[in-house]
Amino acid sequence: MSATTLDARTALVVIDLQQGIVALPTVHPADEVVARSAALAAAFRERGLPVVLVNVTGIAPGRTDGGTPGAVEFPAGWSDLVKELDQQPGDITVSKKQWGAFYGTGLDLELRRRGVTQIVLAGISTSIGVESTARDAYEHGYNVTIATDAVTDTDADAHANSVGRIFPRLGETGSTEEILALLPAAG
Q1: Which of 2, 84, 155, 179 is most buried by its number of CB atoms within 10 A?
Q2: Which residues contact 171 (CB under 8 A, 6 or more apart)?
Q3: Does residue 95 lie within any of the structural domains?
């Protein structure tokens, strides 16, 4: 469903826009995703709405063909958020070691303390961190909106599946421009 409304207490949750992730080859240019996410963050801050900046600092403890947990070492600066997000002291920061931003973090508590009832999602990767967080937000009872032009993936088919099949079942989708147009009603 296309984005139609934003709750009065909506938070922006930006997934994994960090040095190591934005350097990966993606379906849509990462710099465009970063620019749109930064525009959303600035607009949310301007209206006094929460901005959550999420980064991934490791891998979950489950064994996969991606490697043994604890055996992966990331280069220095890999998990540093990109400067374009203009991180502010009032932003909520969440570091995770799994795909979604809710499990094993204080994100739900931080949002509930602020009376948040809806989240807008942006970031990389669409089918991994963004989709996992969208699913968890939906299951936690939040209204979910995804800024579809502010997400991308390393796999075109996975991105298309998330945007076309999964996200519409979890909430609303819209472009950054459409979401920005809805913000005045939320403030």
Answers
A1: 179
A2: 1, 134, 138, 143, 144, 145, 146
A3: yes
